Structure formats: structure tokens, C-alpha cells
Amino acid sequence: MTIAKQRNPLRQLRPVLELLADGEVHSGQALGDALGVSRAAVWKQLQKLTACGLEVESVKGRGYRVPGGLDLLSAERLGASLEPAAQDLLRELLLRDEVDSTNAQILQRLEQGRGHGVAMLAERQTAGRGRRGRQWVSPFGSGISLSLGWQFSGGVQLLEGLSLAVGVALAEALDDFGVPGVTLKWPNDVWCRGRKLAGVLLELTGDLTDRCGVVVGVGLNVGLPESEACSIDQPWIDLNQVRPGIGRNELAAAMLSRLLVLLEQYPARGFSAYRAAWQERDAFAGRRIILEAARQSWVGYARGVNDSGALLLDTDSGLRSFHGGEVSLRGAQE
């Protein structure tokens, strides 16, 4: 496994980030020394961090601090926490302070033939992507933004149900840290206490009938600032609300460890190996739901999923199956 050091637009501010990460007050002089600028110029530089979604507090007569501190991504800590099997499968680990989209970056690498087994994590995304063209809100250091590239031979049919299997892997990683009440919402969401904790976005490239590449993108909320979360258009939750104190590096390593093994084994095992585990966590099992796609909608009772990951809906006209894509799901009145 190759570990690539940080390379990003915020590189100049990295020494200050590392100072402020402890949550303590640091004088303007100390921050100026770290930045290589005068004390008077410190505030101007710190405003760049504020623009990234970080809360930097000025303590009169003493200096500056980031309330609560920062759990910065660390290649050393993350790499050391990976399971041995995952270390063998991971070819390169890329950490960035800021990118447009980790999915876009890994997708580009796959198209260039150098994305297989490559994982990227970013402290902040400026154009994070969710399903159906939605933006994924990812302020600096507030979550886990992870993308992993993988090449498959045999065509896209081998990948049926993969996004659901990824959800199972993420839920099991969260179990390792004692996160309570984790469920799965078809087809791409990880819920906790009835609200969205994480989302999965798969993007494909290459020959969909033969050799193709997939990017598994995961966005997980750890500690979203209220000022940034106001733009989220659905009920959400973060880890700090249910299980504070989980290290981002350790959790990201647990996620990667499970995802790498999953991708390696998926062509042979398929979704059927994960179906029972998914259904045990089905957030809508047995409930009356509405499925909507474009201008059509269907009403019925959720009856789990089949071996390809299609949602089974018990309607007045019988049991019907629905695949992912543009189909969305929301709770209906009983």
C-alpha cells in the first residue's frame, strides 16, 4: 500500500490546523510563526479556514481556538488501523484537505487506468455529490468523505445490489464502534434513529458489458456544524449526537477494511450473500410506503429485497420489484 501525503490548496494553512486541532487557545504570535506571517496578518489567514466551514473563535487578549478541536485525517493512524487483508488490497491511500469531489477524482483515475484499489479521503469537498444530482454537504473535518475505485471483469450485471451490500458493510463497521440504532433505507442510505447518517453513491465507467470500473463513494456525518447543516433538505443525524468520541481515522479504516474485502469477493458472492443482513436492518420492513419515479408513484407494503437488490413492493395488483436509479422512497401514512 502506498500512502500519498497531503496535496491541496490549504497546504499553507496545515501547520495552523495542526496547532488548533487540540481545541486550546493559541496566541496570534504562535499562529503567525507557524504560518510565517506577521501577527497582524494572522486573522486574514484564519478567515480562509472560516470560509471552509470551520468555526475559529477569537478569545480577547489571548488568541484563537477551534471549539472542540479537530480530529484531522492522518495517513499514519488510518494505515495502522487497517485490517491486514485490507492492507494487501489497498494499492494507494490519498488524503486531501480540499477537493471538488472525491468521487470525481477517483473516477478520473479509473478512466486513466490507475484507479483500481485506490482510496481517497478529503477533509472538505467543494462539490460533493449525492444521488439524483444532489449536493452532499461536507464542511471541513465534519465527516468522512471517502471514495474507493475498483475494476471488475464480466460486466455491470455482476454489480447488482452492490450499493446495498456497501450499506451492510458500513453498518457493520459502525457496529464495531457501538453506534446504536443503525438501519438501512433502500437503496443507498444508512440511517440512525430514523434519520440519515450516511449516503452511498456508486459511479461507473468503462465497458459496462465487459471490463468496467466502479467508484464507491461514501459520505458519513460525524459532527456537522448547524450553520452548514441548514442547507440539508432531509432529516439528518451525525455521530456526535449518538456516539461522540469516535476517531475519524479509526472509523474510516474500519469502513475501508470492510469495503475492500467486499469488492474483492463480490463477483463470486453477489448480493445474495448480503441479502439477509440487509433485511435485518431494513428501515421500512413491513411498512406502507410510496415509491416515486419521475411522474409515477406506487403504494404498497415493503417486503424486503430480492437476490439482485430490487425492492419488493406488495401492491393491490400483486408483488412488484423495483431497482435503483431514480426511484426514491419515503414513509407513507398508514
From TrEMBL:
Q: Which residues form a coiled coil?
A: none
Q: Which residues bind DNA?
A: 28-47
Tell me where on the tree of life, at the top rank, the source sits: Bacteria
Biological process per Gene Ontology, one example term: regulation of DNA-templated transcription
Entries under CDD domains matching the protein:
BPL, HTH_ARSR
Which EC number(s) are documented for this chain? 6.3.4.15
* EC class (word): ligase
Query: BPL/LPL catalytic domain: which residues?
Result: 88-267
Catalysed reactions, as listed in the record: biotin + L-lysyl-[protein] + ATP = N(6)-biotinyl-L-lysyl-[protein] + AMP + diphosphate + H(+)
One Gene Ontology CC term in the entry: cytoplasm
The entry's biotin-binding residues are 101-103, 125, 129-131, 196
Q: Which UniProt keywords apply?
A: ATP-binding, Biotin, DNA-binding, Ligase, Nucleotide-binding, Repressor, Transcription, Transcription regulation
Q: Does the keyword Magnesium apply?
A: no
Molecular function (GO) terms listed?
ATP binding; biotin--[biotin carboxyl-carrier protein] ligase activity; DNA binding
Listed InterPro entries: aa-tRNA-synth_II/BPL/LPL, ArsR-like_HTH, Bifunct_BirA, Biotin_CoA_COase_ligase, BPL_C, BPL_LPL_catalytic, HTH_11, Transcriptional_repressor_C
Q: What does this protein do?
A: Acts both as a biotin--[acetyl-CoA-carboxylase] ligase and a biotin-operon repressor. In the presence of ATP, BirA activates biotin to form the BirA-biotinyl-5'-adenylate (BirA-bio-5'-AMP or holoBirA) complex. HoloBirA can either transfer the biotinyl moiety to the biotin carboxyl carrier protein (BCCP) subunit of acetyl-CoA carboxylase, or bind to the biotin operator site and inhibit transcription of the operon.
Q: Member of which family?
A: Belongs to the biotin--protein ligase family.
Q: What is this protein called?
A: Bifunctional ligase/repressor BirA
- Species of provenance: Microbulbifer yueqingensis
